[in-house]
Structures are given as structure tokens and as C-alpha cells.
Design a protein that fits this description.
Length: 76
């Protein structure tokens, strides 16, 4: 991960056209990408284990207690 890049947790609420790459109701790791956000996209580490751009509307941010967030990120 590049310096200054941060990880966020999001939950998938839609996967039209991406059913192989995204599962509804699953928690994903999102990487900060201000250029993508300006275009209405979100950089997400998907089922392939790689990060790709998806419509931001497909996800909702989630906020977990710090210990739970750390455990989820460690398992990702």
C-alpha cells in the first residue's frame, strides 16, 4: 500500500453486471482514490483479490469498532 493510501470498509448493496466479482451484503476493503471518487467510482478489492473500480452507488461505508475493523482488515 502506498504511503498516504488508506483502507476503508464498505458493504456491497448491488452487483448488477458484476455478480462474479462482487457479492451482495459482503464486506469489502476500499482503497482511497480521489480521482475515482470524482468520477463516481470506488476502488475496491474484489473476489479476485485485486483492486478494481466499481460504481460508488454499489457500496455503503460501514464503521466498526477499532478492534473489529483491525480483525477484518487482517483477514482480508
Amino acid at each position: 500500500m502506498a504511503k498516504g493510501e488508506s483502507k476503508h470498509l464498505v458493504v456491497c448493496i448491488e452487483n448488477d453486471g458484476y455478480s462474479v466479482s462482487l457479492e451482495k451484503r459482503k464486506i469489502y476493503v476500499s482503497l482511497s482514490d480521489t480521482t475515482a471518487q470524482k468520477l463516481g467510482l470506488l476502488r475496491v478489492i474484489d473476489e479476485s483479490g485485486e483492486d478494481y473500480l466499481y460504481p460508488k452507488a454499489f457500496f455503503r461505508p460501514i464503521d466498526l469498532p477499532p478492534t473489529v475493523k483491525k480483525a477484518v482488515l487482517a483477514a482480508a
